[in-house]
């Protein structure tokens, strides 16, 4: 892994993202705006505290998945990826650069979303840094899965179509609608294998507990491991170009 080539790739991707106003609105404005809208719907009641905290992990995860998968696919369709891979740049360095660039954007997205959530009245027993850490981890996981999904899509429409397959089952089983322990046993086991369930578990800990410990560290460690596994698999499966 060559740090110089990785950083150069990250810088190029960041310049492309910042130069696209629509993408920046989707990254920074949509998750925060949806949380604020939800608070208005629930009239900032106790129900908003329960549901809004969970969505603080789900919204960034979903947005980063869509943006990452579509942006990476564009690189293949334009031939940029094929040209880059004729240079000494390796696939691992390429994807690490993408992950780093989107990781930087994730930091800003997380900060804006969490700040808006707190400003509109979302209550948390835990410290603010734990809230940021959970949202950042969930966004990073969406980035990793978006890179993986882009390897199997041939068009941007297909990349967007992967969202129901990758994201919606996780939303249904993560504990947002029904607590995971109340699910049928088979679905509870499936939900344990899905990464978003652990993001929701982590944000629930921050919402309900004032002191952070193993209850937070364990789901975050699982999320980090799943994100690394997705990046490794994306490195192996990423084609040079779209046929």
UniProtKB/TrEMBL annotation:
Reply yes or no: does the keyword Transmembrane helix apply: yes
**Entry's Gene Ontology cellular component terms:** ATP-binding cassette (ABC) transporter complex
Membrane spanning stretches: 24-42, 54-73, 94-122, 128-152, 220-238
**What organism is recorded for this protein?**
Kytococcus aerolatus
What domain of life does the native source organism fall in?
Answer: Bacteria
What InterPro entries has UniProt attached to this entry? ABC-2_transporter_component, ABC2_TM, ABC2_TM_bact-type, ABC_2_transport
Give GO BP annotations, semicolon-separated: response to antibiotic
Any one GO MF annotation of this record: ABC-type transporter activity
Keywords, comma-separated and alphabetical: Antibiotic resistance, Cell membrane, Membrane, Transmembrane, Transmembrane helix, Transport
Under what name is this protein listed? Transport permease protein
Name the protein family.
Belongs to the ABC-2 integral membrane protein family.
Query: In which compartments does the protein localize?
Result: Cell membrane
How is this protein positioned relative to the membrane? Answer: Multi-pass membrane protein
The ABC transmembrane type-2 domain extends over: 12-241
Transport: present as a keyword of the record? yes
């Amino acid at each position: 892994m060559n740090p110089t080539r990785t950083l150069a790739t990250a810088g190029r991707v960041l310049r492309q993202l910042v130069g696209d106003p629509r993408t920046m609105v989707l990254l920074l404005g949509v998750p925060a705006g949806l949380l604020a809208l939800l608070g208005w719907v629930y009239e900032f009641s106790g129900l908003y505290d329960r549901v809004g905290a969970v969505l603080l992990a789900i919204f960034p995860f979903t947005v980063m998945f869509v943006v990452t998968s579509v942006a990476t696919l564009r690189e293949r369709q334009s031939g940029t990826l094929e040209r880059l891979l004729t240079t000494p740049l390796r696939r691992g360095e390429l994807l690490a650069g993408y992950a780093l660039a989107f990781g930087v954007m994730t930091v800003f997205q997380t900060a804006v979303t969490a700040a808006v959530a707190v400003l509109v009245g979302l209550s948390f027993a835990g410290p603010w840094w734990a809230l940021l850490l959970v949202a950042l981890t969930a966004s990073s996981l969406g980035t990793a899965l978006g890179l993986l999904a882009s390897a199997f899509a041939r068009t941007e429409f297909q990349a967007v179509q992967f969202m129901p397959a990758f994201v919606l089952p996780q939303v249904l089983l993560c504990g947002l609608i029904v607590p995971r322990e109340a699910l049928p046993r088979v679905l509870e086991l499936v939900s344990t294998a899905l990464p978003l369930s652990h993001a929701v578990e982590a944000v629930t800990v921050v919402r309900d507990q004032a002191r952070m410990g193993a209850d937070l560290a364990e789901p975050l460690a699982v999320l980090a491991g799943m994100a690394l596994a997705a990046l490794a698999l994306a490195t192996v499966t990423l084609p040079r170009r779209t046929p």
